[in-house]
Amino acid sequence: MRGVPGYRPPPMRLRLRPLHVALGSLLALVGTALAQEPGSPAPRVAPAPVDRSRFVQVEGRRFVLEGRAFRFIGANASIMHGAPHRAAVESTLDAIAADGLKVVRVWALGEQPEGSEPWTRDYAFRIGRDGWVEGSFAHLDRVLDAARSRGLKVIVVLANRWGDYGGIPRYLDWAGVSLPLTRGALPETVLRSFFGEASASELYRAHVERVVTRVNPRTGLAYRDDPTIISWELINESEATRHGREGLLGWTRSMARYVRSLDPAHLVAAGHIGYTRQEQRDTWLAVQRLPEVDYADAHAYPTLLRSVRTLPALDDFIDDHVQLAHHVVGKPFVWGEFGFSTNQRIHYGQRRARWFERFLSRSEADGVDGALAWIYTVAGDRPQEHGLYVDGLAATRTRDVRDVLARSASRWNSGLLPPPNPRLGEAMGEAPLWATRRRVPGPGRVGAATVAGTEARWSMRPEGYGAIEAENVGRWDGFSVMHVYGSGAARFTYRFRVSPAARRVALDAGRVRVRLRASSELPGRGEGSTAEDESRLRISVDGVALGEIEVPTDDGAGRWIELTSDAPSVLATMRRPGVHTLGLEVPAGPLANGLCVYGQATGTEPVPEGAGLLPGRVEIVLGR
User: Fold this and answer.
1) Residue 47 CB neighbour total at 10 angstroms
2) Same domain membership, residue 302 and residue 400
3) Rounded to whole angstroms, what are the CA distances from 567 to 23, 511, 528, 547?
4) pLDDT value of position 545
5) Rounded Cα distance, 189 and 130, in Å
6) What angle do CA 18, 24, 30 make, to 5 degrees?
7) Is the same domain home to 142 and 288?
8) Beta partners for 474?
9) Exposure winner among 72, 320, 475, 553, fewest CB in 10 A?
């Protein structure tokens, strides 16, 4: 969910905060004691010979377990980070099992700087490069044992792309790589640095080895011999633009091989976030095609996307992912996370339970192999955006959603398959079933000319556009300067009228100048961007090209750019009376990094020094 291009990021999910203050030091101490058991308890049972048929395996594009097809609905479980959540392992897993879910996904990760406060030990597996937190590993032992006793399987995530609990930023910090200051999404250059930085990879491998080769003293089983585990997920929500694709592919291939060298029995998943744009779709396909990756996965928070506001659009979104995974890549497919906000009951005219129901029924019809809801949790000091609560009065607030999950799990667990979706199949190939690009109409205000002597001028507010066609479209007032944006290959249109007075100027005019305040469109402010993150902008009037110009990289404020043409075809177009269309197009290609068009200062924060005249406008000047 985090870092979707074109979507200005909401607050981080599960952002690290000192829960011990809110809940009292006594509870924190109790939870810490539960999570960090001193010493290594003697095994309760003697190690038994490993029966590989008890491990989930892949046959073609399905999972199998003990010779039978294995499909599941499961949940992400908030039981790894923070004393209250660690203390609630049993009650959280009890709720998951009671709802008939079969798999839990947990994060075996957490990296904090050396010298961190004591309470961070309830969040970290590692404090400093070499400060391993045995209590956190012992807590993972406990989680696996508790899941096994309830008949639950576990997917274990080995690292986090985001800075929650440490993640890629902490690994790069330990590797001595300086990071740009950011707000929200990680810059693309940070991801590229991590996937290409040898010392960061070595630090990651050290953690992987500690986890994967561990022996659970509670069961006497080495993790690699424990059929409770389904798979190792390399990292939560990896991704890359086309500039960083080869680095991501190389890292995923290398780390999957490393995990398999330590544990040849369990499956390996990439942990890729998924896609909302064609470029991301291509990268996702390339990752899932790697032979080192056993099954395809993606995350889904569909109603955060402008392109999924109806139930039929949700069907398209699901169909496209399954078509690629099953019929192009030929592997099982798992929704590693999916969710719809539980902070409100209605989304775009439909009950939230209806969204969950449609998501799971369509996934079932398409033959999805696994779907993991985000997120079963005890109630904390504030509601979680996607919380599915397991305790007290809070549990009644999301009982409607959990009822949907339970009913759906009962169907999936029956082993009965619905008729296949005729829309899917090998013959469809990679052709998109879900349109990532769409046209969003705007106010369509028609600009009027101001004529002074031999010059006619049109000055239009950016938010008065006629339409924007792009893969993500919106308006953002969260930085210093308001802007409308379209990501990837994009086209903006503005309308203006050539009045009789303006036409008289046009008859003698020798040039047309278009001027606007603009930048490319990148996540956040485009922190860490380079020249290859610029966009190339093509400007036209009624389809007649004035020319092309480079647009600077996204910085949340933009820069004035202008293009002048004396082409006879352009001047002839401007001499026609009536309403005309100004086109601002970022064509598909290497510099298709979207477009932001900037307007007035928002007052949200100071405007950067040297930002130039505000408000930004879209201007056309006709004269000699």
Assistant:
1) 12
2) yes
3) 70, 8, 38, 10
4) 97
5) 26
6) 95
7) yes
8) 485
9) 475
Structural contact between residues 593 and 533, judged by C-beta atoms closer than 8 angstroms: yes
CB 121 within 8 A of CB 133: yes
Residues in the chain: 624
pLDDT for res 184: 58
How many domains are contained in the chain? Answer: 2
Q: Cβ neighbours of residue 78 under 8 Å, at least 6 residues apart? A: 14, 85, 92, 375, 376, 377, 378, 384
Residues 399 and 453 in one domain: no
Q: What is the CATH number of the domain that holds 524?
A: 2.60.120.260
| Whole-Å CA distances, 222 to 125, 155, 278 | 18, 16, 42
Phi, psi angle pair for 39, to nearest 5°: 70, -170
Query: How many helices and strands in the chain, by DSSP H and E?
Result: 16, 33
Residues 240 and 161 in one domain: yes
Q: Is residue 46 part of a domain?
A: no
Say if residue 584's pLDDT is above 60: yes
φ, ψ dihedrals at 262, nearest 5°: -85, -30
Q: Are 231 and 155 in contact (CB under 8 A)?
A: yes
pLDDT tens per residue across span 86-103: 999 999 999 999 999 999
pLDDT greater at residue 449 or residue 392:
449
Range of weakest confidence among 236-250, 517-531, 534-548, 568-582: 517-531
Average pLDDT, the chain: 90
- Are 378 and 329 members of one domain? yes
Percent of the chain predicted with pLDDT > 90:
81
pLDDT top residue among 364 and 531: 364
- Kindly give the interhelix angle for 245-262 and 278-288, rounded to the nearest 10 degrees: 30
What is the separation, in whole angstroms, between the first and last Cα of the chain? 51
Residue 495, SS3 per DSSP: strand
For 33, list phi and psi in degrees, rounded to 5: -65, -40
80: Cβ contacts below 8 Å, ≥ 6 apart? 86, 106, 107, 108, 110, 139, 140, 143
User: Cα–Cα distance between 585 and 572 in angstroms, integer?
Assistant: 21
Percent of the chain with pLDDT over 70: 91
What CA–CA distance (Å, rounded) separates 1 from 282?
18
Residue ending a domain, among 360, 394, 428, is 428
Alpha-carbon distances of 579 from 440, 445, 496, 502, rounded to whole Å? 20, 11, 6, 12
Closest CA to 370 of 72, 19, 64: 72
CATH number at residue 115: 3.20.20.80
Inform me whether the pLDDT recorded for 264 exceeds 70.
yes
- HSE, side-chain direction, 13 A CA sphere, residue 296: 28
Tell whether 554 is covered by a domain: yes
- Quote the CA–CA distance of 207 and 132 in Å, as a whole number: 9
Pairing of strands 578-586, 490-498: antiparallel
Burial 360-395 (b: 16+ CB within 10 A, else e): bbbbbbbbbbbbbbbbbbbbbeeebbbbbbbeeebe
Going by C-alpha positions, the residue among 64, 82, 224, 65 that lies closest to residue 144 is 224
Q: Considering the entire predicted model, what is its pTM?
A: 0.84
10 Å CB burial of residue 483 (0-12, 13-18, 19+) is buried
Assess whether 393 and 446 both reside in one domain.
Answer: no
